[in-house]
Write a structure and sequence with these properties.
- This protein is α/β, with parallel strands linked by helices.
- The protein is built from 19 helices and 16 strands.
- The chain has helices at residues 7-30, 41-66, 72-86, 89-107, 112-126, 135-148, 153-167, 173-178, 183-200, 214-224, 245-258, 280-290, 323-331, 347-357, 372-384, 397-405, 413-425, 466-478, 496-510, and strands at residues 235-242, 259-267, 270-277, 292-300, 312-320, 335-338, 359-365, 388-391, 428-434, 439-441, 444-446, 451-455, 458-463, 484-490, 515-522, 528-532.
- Helix 1 (7-30) runs parallel beside helix 3 (72-86) and helix 5 (112-126) packs antiparallel against helix 6.
- It is globular.
Length: 533
């Protein structure tokens, strides 16, 4: 029995865990009564593991390009980082910390039992007020069992976790009243079962029933439970936070006084903050005081407790690479999903956005070639839920803006999709980026610090500065004609206003009858995006 995991085993583990949670998501959602009966624990765990698996695949993809194998430490750290940035809900946030604890030990070459112990301890430390009968109890039992069985720690951890899960109704009154085991613990058992299969090649025996008293659970599903198990806070607030340890310690104290279910996970300057509060604004303001919060999600529990609102006929869901573009598209009526560099949204996040749009018909604009498969999966999932979805394969934000500009919700759906597709297809796109290292490109060899001008995804110009490279890119693109140039400036471009004025003047003086429009991409956007229609 291997005592550690190699890179391939971690990859397999992530894949199998995602498959298991995909199969069991609805069942786990159905037994979710603590800390809030909002029926999303299975979904949140799935989205968290999906983000972890994507990060692992990205490591393998990078090494395939270099024709080398990734180090196990790199893979487990990627898994933990992916879970951290994609963690959703109370249980998803705790699971991210469990994976972080395992990554610390496995990355250092420690045994699986040591990794499980570190994971359980780190997760418990992250919860402001730990409660027994939850995922924390199941994690601790798994670690105890693994340490007690050094010859077969993985199977022992699974069996220990399963026994602890079966006992959770006797530890937590709300579970006993509902007749269910803990939903978060049930999700962790699925993840540990995937670990058993990844290490041994054999799936463990199926867990016991999740429902102790099915009629009680049926009543809860029908609306017999309050949104909060104890009539608690009205909002769930989650955000990623860039801050130092001292600031986070102060933040914990501040948020603990504002609400409950406080979980703060992470480290090394990046944290995932989860809390239930009545004053969502105060929770976000506390994050601003501590550092830089982003990917802020605020959910009103009433909206997850079966309170429905009337569907609109049609909506547009658009993925955007910057906060400024998110505001711009939201003003145009679109539902937005923010994508940070190197952190593309997972299919589950796109499905959630489609649901949030609450429309009978949805046009999905992924605005990235990397999102082709996740967007297709999200569209297919939404269709099974009765939503008519059209996926327009936009490859850049400027194509999405062009499509959104001609969107008319009063048109027939097919006509609207055709018009939006035509507008996107008629828009050539370019992006300016800074080279991180010396490498070969389609335009020649670039050095670290060079400005790269990519047209339709390929490097076409290598320059020394952004304005000059942008002018060369514009000239190449406009040589084939054009009527409108769209410029989207990132927040970090030095003297952005002066750069925009220079490029507008360059187009005006060198290309007659071509108009130029400038937007601010905001935080997270590339230095410069260019569209030519």
């Amino acid at each position: 029995m291997p005592q550690t995991l190699d890179a391939a085993a971690v990859r397999t583990w992530c894949s199998l865990a995602l498959e298991a949670l995909g199969r069991e998501r609805e069942e786990i959602d159905a037994i979710n009564v603590y800390p809030v009966a909002d029926g999303d624990t299975g979904t949140n765990l799935y989205l968290t593991v999906e983000s972890a698996a994507q990060a692992v695949e990205a490591v393998f993809s990078a090494h395939e390009t270099e024709r080398s194998a990734p180090a196990p430490a790199d893979v487990v750290r990627a898994m933990a980082h992916g879970a951290l940035i994609g963690a959703r809900g109370n249980s998803g946030t705790i699971l991210a910390q469990l994976l972080r604890g395992m990554a610390e030990r496995l990355g250092a070459g420690d045994h699986l039992a040591d990794a499980l112990r570190r994971a359980a301890g780190l997760a418990r430390e992250a919860v402001a007020h730990p409660v027994e009968g939850t995922i924390l109890t199941v994690a601790a039992a798994a670690a105890d069992a693994a340490e007690a069985s050094p010859d077969d720690p993985v199977r022992a951890a699974y069996e220990g976790a399963r026994a602890a899960l079966d006992a959770t109704p006797g530890q937590l009154a709300v579970l006993d009243r509902a007749g269910v085991v803990d939903a978060g613990g049930r999700g962790l058992l699925a993840v540990l079962g995937a670990l058993v299969e990844a290490v041994t090649g054999e799936a463990p025996s199926a867990p016991g029933p999740t429902h102790v008293h099915p009629p009680v659970v049926a009543a809860l599903a029908a609306g017999g439970a309050e949104p909060c198990a104890d009539g608690g806070p009205a909002f769930e607030v989650i955000y990623l936070l860039e801050a130092d340890d001292a600031a986070v310690a102060r933040l914990r104290t501040r948020l603990d006084g504002l609400g409950d279910s406080l979980v703060v996970v992470g480290g090394d300057g990046l944290w995932n903050v989860h809390v239930h509060v009545d004053d969502a604004g105060a929770a976000v303001e506390a994050g601003v005081e501590a550092g830089r919060p982003y990917r802020i999600r605020i959910t009103h529990f009433d909206s997850t407790a079966g309170v429905s609102r009337e569907q609109v006929q049609r909506a547009v869901v658009v993925v955007v690479p910057g906060e400024g573009l998110a505001d711009l598209c939201a003003e145009a009526g679109a539902t937005t999903v923010l994508a940070r560099p190197g952190e593309p949204p997972a299919s589950g996040e796109l499905v959630e956005a489609i649901r949030r749009a609450h429309a009978r018909e949805v046009v999905l604009l992924p605005n990235s070639a990397e999102l082709r498969h996740p967007a297709a999966a999200a569209a297919e999932q939404a269709r099974t839920e009765g939503v008519r979805v059209a996926l327009i394969p936009t490859r850049a934000a400027v194509q999405g803006i062009a499509a959104l500009a001609v969107h008319e919700p009063d048109r027939r759906f097919d006509e609207d999709v055709v018009a939006m597709t035509a507008a996107a297809g008629a828009t050539r796109y370019a992006e300016l980026a800074v080279a991180e290292r010396q490498s070969w490109t389609t335009a020649g060899v670039c050095q670290a610090g060079d400005v790269l001008g990519l047209i339709d995804g390929d490097v076409a110009v290598i320059g020394a500065d952004l304005p000059g490279t942008a002018e060369a890119v514009l000239d190449r693109m406009l040589a084939a004609g054009g009527e409108l140039v769209t410029l989207i400036l990132g927040e970090d471009v030095p003297e952005g206003d002066a750069v925009a004025e220079r490029l507008e003047r360059h187009v005006r003086e060198g290309h007659l009858a071509v108009d130029t429009v400038v937007y601010l991409g905001g935080r997270g956007a590339s230095p410069l995006l260019i569209g030519v229609e």
